[in-house]
């Protein structure tokens, strides 16, 4: 297992997970393709074109169940009995994910909802402004969970309620991140969301896997939080971006210039500033 620790690899996660030993992962956090014919074009959500990496790898809807069964079976094999998975999903193919969870004999601990601050404007239907997150495990009695890792048992909210109770409700209102002036991929989980999962379902030194690494968010935040990481990404440009974030020790990578061979991802010494919230203050330095 040593050769996998604190590494990311470019390639098909199904094949790469098949090479890993059994029961070596403490926590899996991932945001797989949703099979919604997502167009990862550069102007999505008003992003400036020169800063958005292209190459998003979508899955056909007809293939989604087979695809999900294949990767989730391998993920189940590498997960420890004491481990957990957090799998994000849209609503369109949620049923296929639930079928795959049952097929892999995983136990659903919670069906979480991540409510974010904006969705795509619609004319003939309601705006979708949430994702599903399935919190599952292999052995419910063995999985780790740290109920007071973020708030003491007696901590209070501003209105006098229980802070740890409020934080553990199954609807999470966490804002998407704006990476103004920085290189980005079309989709990414906010650091606050990943940190919350890490706090409750892992400890320092645990090994965290993201088989659909994308921009590298899970690996980057895991490193920030003192966890080991393993990540796989099939899109070469995304893999290189995630690798450069981890190597540079910076949370954000500022856009430099387009060169003949592609995007130059760095400029000099850019360090992001994070908004403070009631839940999180993240340090940008990964070193």
Which terms summarize this structure?
alpha/beta, eight-stranded mixed beta sheet, two-stranded antiparallel sheet, disordered C terminus, 287 residues, Rossmann fold
Structure description:
- This protein is of the alpha/beta class.
- It has a single domain (7-239), classed as Vaccinia Virus protein VP39 (Rossmann fold), CATH 3.40.50.
- It contains 7 helices and 10 strands.
- The chain has helices at residues 13-18, 64-78, 94-103, 163-167, 191-201, 217-224, 236-248, and strands at 7-10, 25-30, 79-89, 107-115, 130-137, 171-173, 207-210, 228-233, 258-259, 262-263.
- It has an 8-stranded mixed β-sheet with strand order 1-8-7-2-3-5-4-6, with helices on both faces.
- β7 (207-210), α6 (217-224) and β8 form a beta-alpha-beta unit.
- α5 (191-201) crosses α6 (217-224).
- The longest helix has 15 residues, at 64-78.
- The protein is globular, with a radius of gyration of 19 Å.
- The protein starts with 6 loop residues before the first strand and ends in a 24-residue tail after the last strand.
- Residues 38-57 and 256-285 have low confidence and may be disordered.
């Amino acid at each position: 297992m040593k050769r996998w620790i604190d590494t990311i690899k470019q390639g098909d996660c199904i094949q790469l997970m098949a090479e890993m030993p059994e029961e070596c992962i403490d926590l899996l956090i991932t945001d797989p393709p949703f099979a919604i014919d997502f167009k990862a074009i550069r102007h999505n959500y008003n992003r400036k074109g020169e800063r958005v990496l292209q190459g998003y790898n979508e899955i056909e809807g007809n293939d989604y169940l087979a695809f999900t069964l294949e990767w989730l079976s391998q993920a189940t094999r590498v997960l420890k009995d004491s481990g957990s998975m957090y799998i994000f999903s849209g609503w369109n193919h949620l049923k296929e994910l639930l079928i795959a969870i049952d097929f892999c004999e995983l136990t659903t601990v919670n069906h979480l909802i991540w409510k974010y601050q904006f969705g795509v404007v619609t004319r003939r239907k309601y705006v979708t402004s949430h994702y599903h997150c399935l919190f599952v495990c292999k052995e419910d009695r063995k999985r780790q969970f740290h109920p007071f890792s973020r708030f003491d048992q007696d901590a209070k909210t501003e209105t006098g309620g229980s802070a740890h109770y409020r934080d553990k409700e199954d609807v999470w209102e966490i804002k998407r991140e704006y990476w103004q002036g920085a290189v980005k991929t079309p989709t990414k989980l906010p650091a606050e969301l990943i940190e919350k999962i890490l706090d409750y379902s892992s400890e320092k030194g645990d090994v965290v896997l993201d088989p659909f690494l994308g921009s590298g968010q899970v690996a980057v935040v895991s490193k920030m939080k003192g966890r080991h990481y393993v990540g796989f990404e099939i899109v070469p440009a995304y893999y290189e971006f995630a690798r450069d974030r981890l190597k540079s020790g910076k949370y954000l990578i500022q856009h430099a210039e387009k060169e003949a061979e592609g995007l130059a991802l760095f400029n000099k010494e850019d360090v992001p500033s994070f908004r403070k919230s009631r839940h999180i203050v993240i340090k940008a330095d990964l070193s």
